[in-house]
Amino acid sequence: MINKNRLFIGSCFALITTAMAFAIRAGILNKLGADFQLTDTELGYINQMAFLGFPIATMIGGPLYNAIGPKKIGFVAFFAHLLGIVLTLSATGFWTLFFSTFFIGFANGTVEAAFNPLIAQMYPDNKTTMLNKFHVWFPGGIVIGSLISQAMSGMSWQSQIAMMLIPTAVYGFLFFGQAFPEHKSAEGSSSATNIKAMLSPLYLFMIFCMFLTATTELGTQQWVEKLLGQAGAQPLIILAMVTGLMAVGRFFAGPIIHRLNPTGVLLGSAIFATLGIFLMSSAQGGMTYVSAIVFAIGVCYFWPTMIGFVAEYIPKSGAFGMSIMGGAGMFATSVFQPVIGGWLDSARAEALAGGASAEAAELMAGQATLSNIVILPIILTVAFAILYFVRRKSNVATAGH
User: Fold this and answer.
1) Who contacts 349 (Cβ-Cβ below 8 Å, separation ≥6)?
2) Which of 117, 119, 100, 134 minimizes the C-alpha distance to 15?
3) Are 314 and 399 in contact (CB under 8 A)?
4) Total domains present in the chain
5) N or C: which end of the chain has fewer CB within 10 A?
6) Does position 225 have pLDDT exceeding 80, yes or no?
7) Distance between CA 272 and CA 294 in Å, rounded?
């Protein structure tokens, strides 16, 4: 007998592990830089591996879903998480951090490859709402990881990384010995059918948008300590606050999605994300928290609604299409990690050359980098406005139907 509730909870703990990895890594960047004498650009390349391992996993796991199903893919995620955490704990410098972070990223991508389509399959009449409830635990896990990192800030970075073993063990236990649904669905069960749907103009347009939505959300959050560290606010508290608001928003996503539909939600999200990052690029003190709240409203629904859009409007892309959509987002974010690190390094150097103090240079570098990042949601606002009005005007079936 299939225990859907247990499978859903296990999936949520797997996503908590993914999110804690993200939050704790954000919280220990300064310690890693100090311990191993790494520049921000080098830290960017290490971060890049977390985001690059993800799309590689989704490219492998997406088509494999049709052949082996979510159970086996889920256990690959479990063992990859264990391996990545243990290797990180024994890291001795740039290259060991580089490869251990890749394994954690690979595990994170495998979680999405297995459990996004599993949840869409278990709840066929409520896909976008249940995917939002599942993705509550990405920001929810970041809240947990941020608060752990903040509470353990006086301890070693290794002790913080070790905390990730707890949710890993929980989701392994919840999945062990469980029956899973038949993994082939009536729609989109063959990889050839999936690929044909994924070559449709609508899917390719959404891939382009996913590049920008993911980088807007995750690129900003991953560098929160460097971007806002001198803005007169506590970066990890901001990260916990932003992701806490996102978790609440996703949990109550159903009525909003039914009222606005996914395209309306995406357009509104892009507008708020633009405003939030623009405000953060000049905010100091208490206004930093206000601007972060606006940012949270903006990025709250991006990721699960993009996945849900594919599940609802391009169903023949199947599990493969959902996995590649998530992978595209992480791939784009991986590309931007050293870029963001480079923006910080160059803006800081320019500020120091202009006579700024070290503290002022950090503030100026963060603000200059945020001014660069804001271009991404501006492009999204235009793209989603076009999508919204085109879909509203023509109620014809999309290429995936």
Assistant:
1) none
2) 134
3) yes
4) 1
5) N
6) no
7) 6
Q: Is residue 182 part of a domain?
A: no
Structure tokens, 162 = 């070790």
Distance from the first to the final alpha carbon of the chain: 32
Residue 326 lies in a domain: yes
Q: pTM for this structure? A: 0.78
Please tell me the distance from the alpha carbon of residue 334 to that of residue 341, in angstroms, as a whole number: 12
Task: Extract long-range pairs of 220-224: CB within 8 Å, 24+ residues apart.
Answer: 220/277, 220/295, 220/299, 220/370, 220/373, 221/22, 221/26, 221/142, 222/22, 222/25, 222/26, 222/47, 222/333, 222/337, 223/26, 223/29, 223/340, 223/341, 223/344, 223/369, 224/26
Q: 360 with 196: CB under 8 angstroms?
A: no
Query: What are the φ and ψ backbone dihedral angles of 186, each rounded to 5 degrees?
Result: -65, -40
| Amino acid at position 293, single letter | I
pLDDT in tens, 21-53: 888 887 788 888 888 998 888 888 888 888 888
DSSP string, 137-168: HHHHHHHHHHHHHHHTTTS-HHHHHHTTHHHH
Residue 178: both structure tokens together: 């469980």
Which structural domain, as residue segments, surrounds residue 367? 4-174+191-393
pLDDT band per the 50, 70, 90 thresholds, residue 399: very low
Residue 385 lies in a domain: yes
Q: Give the amino acid at 210.
A: M
Q: How far is CA 331 from the centre of its chain?
A: 11
Q: pLDDT at residue 252 above 90?
A: no
CATH of the domain at 263: 1.20.1250.20
Please give the Cα distance from 175 to 259 (Å, whole number).
35
